[in-house]
């Protein structure tokens, strides 16, 4: 878990954060629900009043929430940005109001002077770990892979794709034959997997599924079973997050591997925020 500081343009305040606005993406996955729960817990433990806003996976809802937090005069804002682009104006508004913004788990393409810090994981590395796992599993065999991508334009969808391609680079036996977004949801993971199965000889031509998160993999497992194939055997399954449902699938032999991502982004985020609000220090925060 990494937190980098890049915040230069705000004045420091003597007080610690009393009220923090949290613009959350939505509840598209088990991982996201865990992140929400942990953020609320962390705020409560630190005596911080958290104003929570669920954007239902829509950027316009997040922008409206941030504007409302600014109008309410919160001490700081946590933002888990659904997509990477389109944040400049609202981040400038927060900066002009001298309200520090901390990004959680996804990155934005804006200039890093527009936010205090970003707490997240190495998303490219996650994809690479998944790719390398498949290279080991499929050694010497022709392996046609289908890929379920996360939300289009989101940093995990972009980086996990890049990372996986890096992981399988040089393995000429492995080829991504189909790749489409399932928007990080179980329902769309199932729906898109159904279309992959249909297009690939009822699934017989698919060797492995790479899903950018566990929820889409769980949806796809259902589709594979309904197509009369055995997930985890006929089609290898690797995904990312390590939520309880994928462990259940793995212990039933219906999934093969997951790459763990901690949902506790808020702990390091509040640490960085409190350090900054206490004395204006920009610190690097590292957490396991
Ligand atoms: O940004 C992190 C990703 O967002 C998680 O891996 C996924 O489950 C969630 O929707």
From TrEMBL:
InterPro entries cross-referenced by the UniProt entry: Peripla_BP_I (IPR028082), SBP_2_dom (IPR025997), YtfQ_transport (IPR054837)
Gene name of the record: ytfQ
Family assignment from sequence similarity: Belongs to the bacterial solute-binding protein 2 family.
Signal peptide positions on this chain: 1-17
All copies of domain Periplasmic binding protein, residue ranges: 21-274
Places the protein is found: Cell envelope
UniProt xrefs under Pfam families: Peripla_BP_4 (PF13407)
SUPFAM superfamilies, per database record: Periplasmic binding protein-like I
Key words of the record: Signal
Name of this protein: Galactofuranose ABC transporter, galactofuranose-binding protein YtfQ
Naturally occurring in which organism (per UniProt): Sulfitobacter porphyrae
């Amino acid at each position: 878990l990494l937190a980098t500081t890049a915040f230069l343009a705000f004045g420091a305040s003597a007080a610690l954060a009393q009220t923090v606005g949290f613009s959350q993406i939505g509840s598209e996955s088990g991982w996201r629900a865990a992140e929400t729960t942990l953020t609320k817990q962390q705020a409560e433990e630190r005596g911080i009043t958290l104003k929570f806003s669920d954007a239902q996976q829509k950027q316009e809802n997040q922008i409206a929430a941030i504007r409302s937090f600014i109008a309410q005069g919160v001490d700081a804002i946590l933002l888990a940005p659904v997509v990477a682009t389109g944040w400049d104006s609202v981040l400038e508004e927060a900066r002009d109001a001298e309200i520090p913004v901390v990004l959680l788990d996804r990155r934005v393409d804006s200039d890093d002077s527009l936010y205090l810090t970003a707490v997240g994981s190495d998303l490219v590395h996650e994809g690479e770990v998944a790719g390398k796992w498949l290279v080991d599993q499929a050694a010497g065999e022709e392996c046609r892979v289908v890929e379920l991508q996360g939300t289009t334009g989101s940093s995990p969808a972009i980086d996990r794709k890049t990372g996986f391609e890096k992981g399988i680079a040089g393995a000429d036996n492995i080829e991504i034959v189909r790749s489409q977004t399932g928007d990080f949801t179980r329902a769309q993971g199932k729906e898109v997997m159904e279309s992959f199965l249909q297009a690939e000889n009822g699934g017989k031509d698919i060797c492995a599924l790479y899903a950018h998160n566990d929820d889409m993999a769980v949806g796809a497992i259902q589709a594979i079973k309904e197509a009369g194939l055995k997930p985890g055997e006929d089609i290898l399954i690797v995904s990312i997050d390590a939520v309880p449902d994928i462990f259940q699938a793995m212990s039933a032999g219906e999934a093969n591997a997951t790459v763990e991502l901690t949902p506790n982004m808020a702990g390091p985020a509040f640490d960085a925020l409190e350090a900054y609000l206490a004395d204006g220090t920009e610190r690097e925060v590292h957490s396991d």
